[in-house]
Design a protein that fits this description.
The chain is 16% helix and 25% strand. By secondary structure, it is of the alpha+beta class. Among the domains are: 79 residues; 42 residues, no CATH class.
Length: 179
């Protein structure tokens, strides 16, 4: 009866191969119980600090005698911001941001943030292009309301602060609307 079951030579080979594979699998699992469990996986890397932000947003600004102030911020608690102004990539050996920075020429800022329990942030980059006076965007006009003593109709002051140091050749357009 056995000869009939495995009359085909291919089936005989398959039966022998299956048995051999089964023996190998069983032999590989026989460790005698003396092996130790695998080590635990390493802990995941810490989350990165938030990417620093620039204010005002990088872009083109009209140059003034006072220069352009740039503020760097980061939302990660107790973050330290490191920055460069020459376009190089900042490291923890770069300048530490403490106060707004005044620039007087086109400047490329790059910044990273670090904080305890966080890895370094992604590099933030921004270029401030300072154009000659009158060739760039003007700052918005300033509206002022009197603190007291004004009744309806309400008195509103309107001033173009750009004209003080930087004539932008702009006129302020306004409209009124009564409620």
């Amino acid at each position: 009866m056995r000869a009939d079951r495995f009359a085909n030579p291919w089936l005989q080979f398959a039966a022998i191969s299956s048995s051999a594979a089964l023996v190998i699998v069983l032999a590989a699992g026989c460790g005698g119980g003396a092996s130790s469990p695998p080590p635990p996986p390493p802990p995941p890397p810490p989350a990165a600090a938030a990417t620093p932000a620039f204010f005002p947003v990088p872009g083109a600004y009209s140059q003034t005698s006072a220069g352009q102030m740039v503020t760097l911020t980061d939302v990660t608690a107790a973050a330290t911001i490191y920055y460069t102004t020459d376009g190089s990539t900042p490291t923890t050996s770069s300048a530490i941001y403490a106060n707004p920075i005044t620039i007087n020429a086109t400047t490329t800022f790059k910044a990273i943030a670090t904080a305890s329990g966080f890895s370094a942030s992604v590099v933030a980059s921004g270029t401030y292009t300072l154009t000659p006076p009158g060739n760039g965007p003007c700052p918005p006009p300033v509206f002022s309301l009197p603190l007291s003593g004004c009744s309806l109709p309400l008195c509103v002051g309107l001033k173009d602060t750009a004209l003080e140091e930087n004539p932008c050749n702009a006129c302020v357009l306004y409209g009124t609307h009564t409620i």
